[in-house]
Every structure is written in structure tokens, then in C-alpha cells.
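C-alpha cells incoming
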């Protein structure tokens, strides 16, 4: 109920501003009007500033509307110097372009050409302050007088009357304080939040807090200009955010690309909200890169042999079933090759276990260098290795010969006086035979020991 009341109050404010600019264009000589409200009261002091909360405009082109919307969405501020006493004309403030202090100029410059001597100029500013309880809480800015004349106190009475009625309507509705408090509270909380926050409305980012800008590496202005808003997400993730209906009310993890090109992992939560009296989405972004990297490292360690960096026995037992099912589905063969180092005991006995570990690491790299990228190598036991060869049923002998030659040549160059070789056996799964994995391992092991006995007999 409170939320509904808050939305209704904001809509009341917008309705007052909409009605004001419409009546100005219809009932006064001015053909363009913009009414805006501030986040806090403004004083005529030179250094007084206020952020614009919301606005309404009438008579602007779509290019002017876009520029004005960008100004507000980028957190645009106005200065109190425009209400200095020297510019006062009746209850309004008129600043001729040729007398404007530095930095004071029309936000939306007139597109008309004025030629009347001593008349209106495109650079002129005419402002009527909106006052509530003596405080300037907004302004009415007008332009393009139909007669091209400069304003006089008499010609401004109708304009000032409309501004006064609008200010009274705001006061009577008792919504201004609520609007300002809601705006200030939102910004107070958003700018101090741990997570990044984006407010998405109409397919664009309408607000980005400092944390979001820092997290993504963009300036706030760049985020507000980003179309489509979700383009900072990794291409593989964008489908989650590019639909007509965002995935609201739940969390998901997604990879984003920072302005520098680096990637960052985010926990993303999207919720429905109201922003400036219109439906919007609050997109919360929390950096979880460190956690994702830690989990990936732990997962990698769980499937890797710490000494050689090869896959371990656990990985083989979990993954070989997937390979079997794939081969069964597509009726393609695969081979399991088992290799055992011959003479490795001499390395440990004569050179020590530390040198033995080094030899195992070197042999692991030699094996990886001989196989395809699609093949996977496993340290199955102390000096025993498995090689899984997907979609391979023939030409295994050529690989075996390369492995034996590579290991023997390396041993001759690096292990003087020690003979190191490799005994190899293999078994191939075919769709016709369809043996279980245990049978393949037993067959490969039997062939390997046949080769070992034959070598020892020689």
C-alpha cells in the first residue's frame, strides 16, 4: 500500500508539471516550455547547485527531448547564479545572452532566427522560479516567443500566474517533500551500496551508481549512453538479458566484459521497481570473480595429478563413461592405451625420489606432445599412464612407436647409465563388440604385460 501511495504521489508531481508546460504553450506567447524540479532547494548564491529530479517539456523537437533526457539521466545540475538579483524582472529572471555570466546558457538553444531590433535572441534565458514556502524548488524555463519581443513585467504576469498555481498545486498535494526525500534516500543508499546498481528503463540505463561504473570500467556517462544496455555482458550471456521480459526475482551468474577488455564474473539480481513514476528494473551487480576463480582452481585440482599436471584416475573414471556413451550413440570406435615405464625403479634407487619425480614430469610432457589435442592423458598409478584416443580404432601402432622412441631418446640424453623405456598395451572399443570399460582395461593391461615379458625375455 505504501509503495502504491508513493507511486501515486510521484505521478501527481509529474501531472502538475505536464499541465504547467501545456498551459504555458497554449496561453502565453512562448512556444517552448520546460518545467523541472530539484532534489533540494536552490538559493541565488553563485555556488549553490541542485540536481534535477524530473521534468516535463512541451514544444521541443525529439532531438531536444533526447538532449534534455540525457542531461537529467546523467545527473545534471543547475546553478543558483541564474537567480541573482540583477537578472530579476518582476517575479521572473531574464538573462540576455550578451549579459550572461560564464557557464550560464540555454540548455536547449532556440532553433529560430530572431531579427527584431532589441528583441529576443536565441541565447536569452527566461526563468520563473517555482517556490514552495519561500524556497526555490524548481523552475519554469520558456523560449521562442511568437512575437519575438523581449519580456516586460506586464507580459510576464500570465506566465508567473501559471507558475504560482503550479507551485500551490505541489504544496497542496503535499508530495514535494516525499519526492525529494525518496530521491535523496535512493541516491544515499545507492551510492553507498556494496554492489553495483543499474536502473534500466525503456531498454536503457537511466541510473548507474559509482560501484557499477568502477566494476565495469566505464564512466557513468558511457553507461547511460550504452544501447542496448546489456552489451557489456559476454556474448554467450546476453540472451538472459536481451528479451522483452528480464529474468526478475532470481539470481544468476554471468560473465561481463570490462571496458579494458578484461572479463569479470558477476552475480546478477534483477528486480522490478518504479523510477520517476515509471516501471523500471533494478539490476544489482556483485563481483564474484575471485570466488569463481577459486572454485575453478579447486575443481581443476580435483581432476589433476599434482605432480605431472595430467588428469588423475578420478577424472578418468568419471569421464570415460561419457566417452563410451558418445561412441555408442555415434557408433564410432575409441581406444584405451596403457603405458608403464620400464626401468623406472632404477631411477628412484640410483638417483633418488626427487629425481624420479622430475623424470615423471618430463615423461608426462613427452606423452602429451605425441598425442592429439582431443586425446586425454591420465596418470593412472605411480609410473603407469592411460591415454584415451577418441574415434581411433586403427593406426595405434604408429603412436606407440612414437612414444617408445621419444622416451628412449630422452632417457639416453638425460639419464646416463640408466635404461628407461615404456611398455604399452591397448584395447579398442567397437560398436560391434561393445565391451564394458573394465574389459577394455583388462585387455590393455594384458597386452602391456605381454610386451613387458617379451622385452625381458630378450
Amino acid at each position: 500500500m505504501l509503495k502504491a501511495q508513493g507511486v501515486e504521489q510521484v505521478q501527481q508531481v509529474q501531472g502538475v508539471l505536464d499541465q504547467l508546460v501545456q498551459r504555458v504553450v497554449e496561453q502565453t506567447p512562448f512556444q517552448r516550455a520546460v518545467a523541472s524540479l530539484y532534489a533540494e532547494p536552490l538559493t541565488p548564491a553563485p555556488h549553490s547547485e541542485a540536481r534535477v529530479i524530473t521534468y516535463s517539456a512541451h514544444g521541443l523537437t525529439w532531438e531536444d527531448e533526447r538532449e534534455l533526457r540525457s542531461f537529467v539521466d546523467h545527473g545534471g545540475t543547475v546553478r543558483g547564479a541564474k537567480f541573482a538579483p540583477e537578472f530579476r524582472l518582476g517575479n521572473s529572471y531574464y538573462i540576455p545572452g550578451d549579459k550572461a555570466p560564464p557557464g550560464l546558457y540555454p540548455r536547449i538553444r532556440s532553433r529560430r532566427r530572431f531579427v527584431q531590433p532589441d528583441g529576443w535572441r536565441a541565447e536569452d534565458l527566461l526563468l520563473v522560479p517555482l517556490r514552495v514556502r519561500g524556497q526555490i524548488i524548481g523552475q519554469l524555463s520558456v523560449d521562442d516567443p511568437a512575437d519575438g519581443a523581449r519580456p516586460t513585467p506586464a507580459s510576464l504576469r500570465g506566465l508567473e500566474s501559471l507558475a504560482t498555481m503550479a507551485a500551490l498545486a505541489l504544496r497542496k498535494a503535499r508530495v514535494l517533500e516525499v519526492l525529494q526525500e525518496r530521491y535523496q534516500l535512493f541516491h544515499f543508499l545507492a551510492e553507498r551500496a556494496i554492489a553495483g546498481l543499474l536502473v534500466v528503463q525503456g531498454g536503457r540505463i537511466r541510473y548507474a551508481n559509482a560501484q557499477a561504473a568502477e566494476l565495469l570500467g566505464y564512466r557513468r556517462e558511457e553507461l547511460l549512453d550504452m544501447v542496448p544496455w546489456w552489451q557489456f555482458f559476454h556474448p554467450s550471456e546476453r540472451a538472459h538479458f536481451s528479451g522483452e521480459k528480464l529474468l526478475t526475482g532470481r539470481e544468476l551468474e554471468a560473465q561481463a566484459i570490462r571496458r579494458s577488455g578484461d572479463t569479470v564474473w558477476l552475480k546478477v539480481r534483477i528486480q522490478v521497481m518504479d523510477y520517476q513514476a515509471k516501471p523500471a528494473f533494478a539490476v544489482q551487480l556483485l563481483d564474484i570473480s575471485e570466488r569463481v576463480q577459486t572454485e575453478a582452481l579447486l575443481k581443476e585440482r580435483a581432476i589433476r595429478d599434482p605432480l605431472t599436471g595430467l588428469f588423475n584416475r578420478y577424472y578418468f573414471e568419471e569421464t570415460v563413461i561419457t566417452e563410451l556413451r558418445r561412441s555408442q550413440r555415434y557408433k564410432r570406435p575409441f581406444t584405451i592405451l596403457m603405458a608403464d615405464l620400464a626401468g623406472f625403479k632404477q631411477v628412484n634407487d640410483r638417483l633418488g625420489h626427487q629425481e624420479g619425480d622430475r623424470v615423471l614430469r618430463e615423461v608426462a610432457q613427452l606423452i602429451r606432445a605425441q598425442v592429439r589435442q582431443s586425446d586425454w592423458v591420465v596418470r593412472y598409478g605411480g609410473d603407469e599412464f592411460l591415454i584415451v584416443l577418441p574415434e581411433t580404432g586403427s593406426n595405434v601402432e604408429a603412436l606407440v612407436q612414437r612414444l617408445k622412441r621419444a622416451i628412449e631418446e630422452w632417457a639416453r640424453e638425460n639419464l646416463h647409465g640408466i635404461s628407461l623405456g615404456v611398455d604399452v598395451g591397448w584395447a579398442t572399443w567397437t560398436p560391434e563388440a561393445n565391451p564394458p570399460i573394465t574389459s577394455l582395461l583388462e585387455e590393455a593391461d594384458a597386452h602391456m604385460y605381454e610386451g613387458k615379458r617379451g622385452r625381458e625375455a630378450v
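note: The longest helix spans residues 2-27.
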